[in-house]
Structures are given as C-alpha cells and as structure tokens.
Design brief:
With 458 residues, the chain is an alpha+beta fold. It is built from ten helices and 22 strands.
Length: 458
C-alpha cells in the first residue's frame, strides 16, 4: 500500500523533514519527533528512538544499533523502553542525518517512533512460543501498513498507541492503549479501546468481544479517523482518544465508532489474516532484566553473537528486558548471566536527560535493585516515573512511583507518590495511591513493603 506522502525512506538522508502531500501536492514540513528524535536537557544533544515492531529484533539489527551507539553515542548505554523501542542518548545534533542513514541501511525505519503519529505497535514477546497462543505479528504488521497509508496519519492531534496480545492473558497490556487486541481461543480478538495513562489515567473499555482479523484492521482505521476528526487540538493534555470518549460518553462513543466502522467497510478492502498457532519447539525461556533499561553496547553485541551462534530467538519485552527462546537449555556467558534473576524494575530516564523529568529515577532504580532479593517478586513489577506523565506506567504497576517535588520536613526536595496493586494494563485495575515519600526515604519504604507486607490481591 502506498503511503499518502512522499517516500518515508527519503527522509533518512537529510536533517530537515519536508515531504510532499500526495493529496494536495503541497510541501509539508514535519516535526523531527515523527522520526523519534527528541532534544535532551543537555545543550545540542538529542535522543534517538528506534521502534522495533513487537520487539522482533535479529542479530544483524542489533549489531547495526551497536555500531551507531559506538560511533555517535560514545560511553552511553542503549535504553530499552516499555514499547519495545531502543533509545540512543547523547547524540550530537549535527550527527542525526548520518544516524538516520545507518539505521535505514539496516532496515530500521524510525518513522512513528515519536510525535503525533501511530507509535510502535507492541506485541507480547512470547506469544509465538506459548502453547495455546497465536503469533500475532502478521495482523500487527498489516494494521500498521494500513494505518501508515491513512490520509489522516500526519494530521493527528496527538499520539496513537496499539497493542496485540496472542492469548486471553492480555500480556501486551491492552487497557493502557488507544486500541488493544487480545486473541481469543478461536482466533478472533477481544477489542479494548480508549485507554491511556498520563497525569490522570483512564483505562480502556471493552469495545467488542470477538472480531475477525479483517474487522480488527477496519476498527483501527475507523478509530484513527475518528481521533483525527474529534481529537482536541487546543489542549494537548486532553488530546488522546480517551478524551473523545470522555466528551461523548461511553455509549455515544461506541455508537459513533461503530457507525464509522460500518462506513469504512464499504471503502477499505482488507485481506483476512490466518493467525499462526504458537510453536512448541522452543520450550526453554530466559529473561534478561536491565535495571532502568540500560544495556551496554558491548553486552548488546555479545547477546547478538551468542543468540546467532546458538539459534536463540530474541524478543524485547515490555519491562526493560529481553526474552530468549530456544529448543535447548540456555547457558548464558558470564557477561550476560549477570542480568538473570534480577527484580523487574522499570524506570524512565527521569531528570538525567528528559526535559520533563523531576526526579532521578535511575538512582532510585539502582538502589532498589541492590536491595531487593525476594523470589516471589520474580513476576511483579516496580515502575518508577520521573514526573506525573507516567512514562514507566507507574499508575498500573504492582508498585508504582511517580516523581514530584514537594516540601518535606521544611525542605523542598525530590519525592515520589507511591501506588500499589495495579493490574499492569492487563485489566481495568488502576493502582491505588498510598503515600508520598522523599526520594531518600523511597528505597527503604519500598523494600519494607516488598519484604514484609507483600502485595495486595489483584
């Protein structure tokens, strides 16, 4: 399908982002954020985000990213995000054109990694290897292709996020996405819509209990058009699909969306996608957990070499980690085994680099990683966000911390609001706020909660 604008590939050989709108024939200047390029706090330094559809990355792509990091982001680790992206920090502004070109040569297109666009579509990392699940990459890829061909793609009021889960466990967190799809046992999809986090989170609502793959794509196209037409263009804080839902009310929101779907079915021809059943020939799985999502380029290269040599499949997960799948036991080399059996601590960059960051998330995450050694927390998540925007998904975590600045003991200082008991986006359960603690108090408070109080029932 043809993109309605000039070829995206052409954007990688230049620093400006000017394309020709094929509908009007007029030049359009696009913000660099559409290519995942963001300014840092540091003068003339930028962060480059690289989307990896569903976290499906191979050894060749890893090595290309390592090459870019070593050349243009020296001494700075790679950062794995909660949307299966990879971020490179501390890149000089004048080098961004060369970065685009090297990534493009490796087949890594960064369009949609940021800005007001359809963001990287996330997929539960192990769906193709878990018995009873489906490999949903094919339907996720088709959905992205259709939406990237939409005439409204470059005129959205804000970002639009989609996830696909390969089974009813909803591991890809549909309730915190604009659209989330979870596969039913018969290969249809349960559709969840109009959820997002931010300073005032609202989780999604069920839109349909069972859609075919064709209907999934048609719903996605209809929702995108509805968002482009109905989204708030005056106040970015109220410019997500869930704010359209709030304005209309759940019943009218669903009715209008349904009318749009019926209309779009008349014009949008979509092939039926046959989902592949999960493979059962990779029974061995290992998780590598990177505290704060940071991964040294040397370790990334070692991982690529190890997995390629041993025919191990790599997947970026949704919690700052990597999932490895193999048909035989996985024996990691020493430089990688140190990342096994670590607590799952998700943290955004915070005020180290982000212009919105209020607290030092990295410092807190490292202190917690040193202190927490509780086996029963292996499948639980601690999420640390450096501001109320909830980038680490603190509002739905088992334990979430949201950064703020507050006067405590007559001193203005970094602090965290502490939330507990969230459903991690797999259901409509928000975490409950318990207290606000100073950044210095936070490690001890969280350690005590984890070790002595345990988790409230979810």
């Amino acid at each position: 399908m043809r993109h309605p604008h000039a070829s995206i590939e052409n954007l990688y050989y230049r620093n400006d982002i000017t394309v020709t709108d094929l509908n009007s024939g007029q030049p359009v200047v696009l913000p660099q954020r559409l290519l995942g390029t963001y300014p840092q706090r540091q003068e003339r330094k930028i962060m480059q985000r690289i989307p990896v559809l569903g976290g499906r990355i191979n050894a060749l792509q890893w090595r290309a990213i390592v090459q870019v990091a070593r050349r243009f982001s020296r001494g700075t680790p790679l950062h794995l995000t909660t949307r299966q992206d990879i971020e490179l920090h501390d890149i000089s502004q004048e080098d961004i054109g060369a970065v685009y070109q090297l990534l493009n040569t490796a087949g890594l297109n960064t369009f949609g990694a940021g800005g007001d666009c359809v963001r990287n579509i996330t997929i539960c990392p192990g769906c193709e290897f878990h018995e009873g699940a489906f490999d949903v990459r094919s339907i996720a890829k088709l959905t992205r292709e259709v939406l990237f061909s939409s005439p409204v793609l470059l005129s959205l009021p804000r970002k639009f996020k989609i996830s696909f889960s390969g089974c009813t466990k909803a591991c890809a967190r549909p309730f915190i996405n604009d659209l989330g799809f979870a596969a039913n046992a018969d290969g249809t999809f349960r559709a969840i819509g109009a959820g997002s986090l931010g300073p005032r989170p609202q989780l999604g609502m069920e839109l349909y209990p069972a859609l075919t793959t064709q209907e999934v794509v048609q719903l996605s196209a209809a929702a995108l058009e509805m968002f482009a037409e109905r989204g708030d263009r005056q106040n970015r804080r109220k410019a997500r699909l869930r704010h359209v839902r709030q304005k209309l009310g759940d019943k009218e929101f669903h009715s209008e969306l349904h009318r749009r779907i019926e209309k779009i079915k008349q014009t949008l021809s979509v092939p039926e996608v046959k989902l592949a059943a999960a493979k059962v020939n990779c029974p061995y799985q290992t998780t590598l957990q990177f505290v704060t999502g940071e991964m040294a380029p040397d370790d990334a290269e070692s991982l690529a070499d190890f997995c390629e040599k041993n025919n191990i499949v790599m997947r970026i997960n949704l919690t700052h980690g990597m999932e490895l799948f193999s048909d035989k036991p996985i024996e990691l080399p020493a430089e990688l085994s140190k990342y096994e059996n670590l607590p799952c601590i998700v943290a955004c960059p915070g005020n180290d680099t982000c212009t919105n960051g209020l607290t030092n998330c990295r410092k807190l995450a490292l202190r917690l990683a040193e202190q927490l050694h509780v086996p029963e927390w292996k499948d639980k998540t601690i999420a640390i966000s450096g501001c109320p925007n909830n980038c680490a998904q603190s509002a739905v975590a088992d334990v979430g911390l949201t950064g703020c600045v507050k006067t405590i003991d007559d001193q203005r200082q970094e602090a965290y609001q502490v939330f507990v008991g969230g459903g991690c986006g797999r259901n409509d359960t928000l975490a409950e706020m318990r207290e606000t603690v100073s950044a210095e108090q936070a490690p001890g408070k969280i350690k005590k909660f984890v070790e002595k109080q345990g988790l409230p029932p979810l």
